[in-house]
Amino acid sequence: MKEYDVIIVGSGPAGYTAGIYATRFNMKTLLIGKESGGQVSESYRIENYPGLSMTNGMDLVTKFKEHAESLGVKTIEFLEVTEVKKTENGFNVKTDEATYFGRTLIFATGAKKRKLGLLNEDRFRGKGVSYCATCDGAFFIDKIVGVIGGGDSAVASALLLSEYAKKVYLIYRRKKDKMRAMPVWIERAENNEKVEMIFESVPKELKGEEKLESVVFDQNGKNIEIKLDGLFIEIGTVPESELAKKLGVSVNEKGYIKVNEDMSTDVPGIFAAGDVTTGSNMLAQIVTACAEGAIAAESAYKYLKKEEYHENL
Ligand code: NDP
Question: What pLDDT is recorded for position 313?
């Protein structure tokens, strides 16, 4: 079994940054990710990562990956970690192809898109229902689409979709002043003639025969039906903390891994960073995920140093 000082699970900004820092502490580092780049690879426009006034998610994570690999991080992508078991002096990390040993672990597993939970949502996935405007926007040239949500993801998706579709409804369940998106995004949506914002509307039903044809909303107790070719659901995320939970790591009531200031969890040798941690409840940005990754790597290094010191006493 191949052995590492640290195994990082997750290949987003937090994971790659943890890898970059870990190798600079001379730690033998393995990074395993089930995709390349995580959620950020779906961002079509990033304007707030310092030093890069404009980039996109795919370009940025490609740079993160190249940087990490150039420093010696062993990366395995498109492979899922299926099980992690605690051993006497570390952790056995299992994938479908092999089992690796890590003296420490960093969970940078991120978060996945939340679903509406409506009937037909799964049936119409890929038949009108989508969770990624960057991936699927181009299928809706000159069509009518809707985006559900009031955060940055929803507004950014509506703006991207306006480059393809002839009409974009941005549908939010509360009043405009409750929207979570940054004012700069909201302003751009308001000034975009293809985008129409609809407020106080809660999605109720997805209608159609073979594919999505319309969506019914409850607007202050009244049903409204909007005919659509596509519906993009951007209603936030759910943390991917299952593996950590199985190891006994504490999570908060929403499932985010509880971390201390040094990104340690309550299980010795396990650290966490990025969107999967309670830190992301404060601010979930690429720059904060990177910062958490760097801290987690340094803390894993200090943890190993302390262990070695005790072993040599
Ligand atoms: P958020 O959690 O910020 O927003 C989710 C939105 O979906 C809220 O407006 C919420 O409504 C709404 N919602 C939740 N559940 C439902 C439901 N069942 N039915 C209808 N509406 C629902 O998620 P985002 O994905 O937008 O953003 C996540 C994080 O990523 C944020 O920190 C954001 O800043 C960041 N991000 C940054 C970007 C950038 O800077 N370029 C781009 C994209 C994301 P309500 O407000 O009523 O709770």
Answer: 63
Which region, left, alpha or beta, applies to residue 177 given φ > 0 means left and ψ of -120 to 50 means alpha? alpha
CA 148 / ligand 1 centre spacing (Å): 10
Q: How far apart are CA 112 and CA 101, in angstroms?
A: 26
Which ligand 1 atom is at minimum distance from the Cα of 116? 18
CATH topology assigned to domain 3-113+237-311 = FAD/NAD(P)-binding domain (3.50.50)
pLDDT score at 45: 85
The residue whose C-alpha atom lies closest to atom 13 belonging to ligand 1 is 235
The rounded average pLDDT for each run of 10 residues, N- to C-terminus, in the chain (313 residues) is: 97 98 98 91 89 94 97 96 96 97 98 95 95 93 98 96 98 98 97 98 97 97 97 96 98 97 98 96 92 98 89 69
pLDDT (0 to 100) of residue 281:
86
Closest CA to 218 of 115, 128, 116, 114: 116
Domain with CATH 3.50.50.60 in the chain: 3-113+237-311, 129-233
Q: Give the chain's length.
A: 313
Which protein residue has the closest C-alpha to ligand 1 atom 30? 284
Please work out whether the CB of residue 240 comes within 6 Å of at least one atom of ligand 1: no
Ligand 1 in reach of 137 Cβ (< 6 A): no
Q: What are the helix (H) ranges across 179-239?
A: 183-190
Q: If you measure from the C-alpha of residue 32 to the centroid of ligand 1, how many angstroms do you get, rounded to a whole number?
A: 27
Instruction: Give the atom of ligand 1 at the shortest distance from the alpha carbon of 113.
Output: 25
What single-letter amino acid sits at 62? Answer: T
What CATH code would you report for 129-233? 3.50.50.60
The pLDDT value given to residue 43: 85
